[in-house]
C-alpha cells in the first residue's frame, strides 16, 4: 500500500509514457496528471496514432517507451489490436489498459496476450496510483543489470557504475573514462549521495601515487560531468562534490 504521492513519484519520475485515448477531454485531463509524474508524456488520439508514435520514438531514441497506457475502445485501431502490435515489436512492453467493467470480451482477449494490469473507468485515482506504483516499480527493477546487482550503482535508469570492474556503462555499451576519471568515480561512489570533499579526492589520488591540485580536480570534474546523467554530479559550494541518483 502506498502512503503518499512521493512514493509514486520516485518510481515514475525517470520513465517515459505513451498515453492513447480517443476522448479529447479525458486525454487532456489525464495527460496533465501524468505530466506531474513522468519525465516524458506523449499522447495519441487512437491506436493507429499510438503505434506510429511508438515507432517514431524508437527510431529517434533507439529505445522504447517505458510504459504505454491505452484505452480499449478507440477508432481505427482499438486497444487489443494496439497491444498485439506493440508486443510484436517488443514482447516485454509494459502496458496498462483503461477499461469499463462492461468490456469483458475485450479484457479476455488482453489477458490471453499477457496484459495483467487494468485501470477501470470511470477512473478512480487511488486505484490508478496503486496500479502505476506497482507497474513502475517492476519497470525500474527490470532496468537494473541482472548480473551482480549488489555491485552496481544506478545513476539513473540508463547509466550504471560497476564497483568491481570500475566500469561506467549504459544499457548497451561501456562509456569511455580516463584513468583519472575512474579514480574520481571510485571516491565519489564510495560516498554516493554524500558530499565528497576536495581533500577526500586529493587523498584518494595520493594513495594511488598521483599528485594533482585543486584546480586539476575542478577541470577533471567538468569533463566527467559531461559523461554522466544530467544533475548526477553536483558541486556543493565550499564543501565539495556529490554524486547521486537522478
Description:
By secondary structure, the chain is of the alpha/beta class. The model has no long low-confidence stretch (mean pLDDT 87). The longest helix has 19 residues. Helix 1 runs parallel beside helix 6 and helix 7 crosses helix 8. The protein is built from 9 helices and 11 strands. A hairpin with a 5-residue loop joins strand 6 and strand 7. The protein folds into 2 domains: 139 residues, Response regulator (Rossmann fold, 3-Layer(aba) Sandwich), CATH 3.40.50; 95 residues, Winged helix-like DNA-binding domain superfamily/Winged helix DNA-binding domain (Arc Repressor Mutant, subunit A). The strands form 3 sheets. The chain has a 5-stranded parallel β-sheet, sandwiched between helices. The chain has a 3-stranded antiparallel β-sheet with strand order 6-7-8, covered by helices on one side.
Amino acid at each position: 500500500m502506498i502512503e503518499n504521492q512521493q512514493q509514486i513519484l520516485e518510481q515514475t519520475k525517470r520513465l517515459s509514457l505513451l498515453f492513447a485515448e480517443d476522448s479529447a477531454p479525458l486525454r487532456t485531463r489525464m495527460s496533465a496528471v501524468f505530466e506531474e509524474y513522468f519525465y516524458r508524456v506523449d499522447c495519441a488520439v487512437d491506436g493507429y496514432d499510438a503505434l506510429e508514435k511508438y515507432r517514431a520514438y524508437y527510431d529517434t531514441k533507439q529505445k522504447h517507451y517505458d510504459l504505454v497506457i491505452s484505452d480499449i475502445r478507440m477508432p481505427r485501431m482499438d486497444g487489443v489490436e494496439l497491444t498485439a502490435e506493440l508486443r510484436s515489436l517488443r514482447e516485454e512492453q509494459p502496458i496498462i489498459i483503461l477499461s469499463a467493467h462492461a468490456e469483458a470480451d475485450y479484457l479476455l482477449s488482453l489477458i490471453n496476450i499477457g496484459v495483467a494490469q487494468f485501470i477501470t473507468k470511470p477512473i478512480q485515482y487511488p486505484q490508478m496510483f496503486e496500479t502505476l506504483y506497482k507497474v513502475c516499480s517492476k519497470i525500474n527493477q527490470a532496468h537494473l543489470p541482472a548480473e551482480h546487482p549488489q555491485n552496481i550503482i544506478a545513476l539513473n535508469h540508463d547509466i550504471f557504475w560497476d564497483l568491481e570492474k570500475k566500469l561506467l556503462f549504459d544499457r548497451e555499451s561501456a562509456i569511455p573514462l580516463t584513468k583519472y576519471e575512474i579514480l574520481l568515480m571510485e571516491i565519489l561512489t564510495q560516498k554516493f549521495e554524500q558530499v565528497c570533499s576536495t581533500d577526500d579526492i586529493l587523498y584518494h589520488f595520493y594513495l594511488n601515487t598521483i599528485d594533482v591540485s585543486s584546480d586539476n580536480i575542478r577541470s577533471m570534474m567538468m569533463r566527467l560531468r559531461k559523461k554522466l546523467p544530467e544533475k548526477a554530479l553536483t558541486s556543493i559550494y565550499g564543501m565539495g562534490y556529490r554524486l547521486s541518483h537522478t
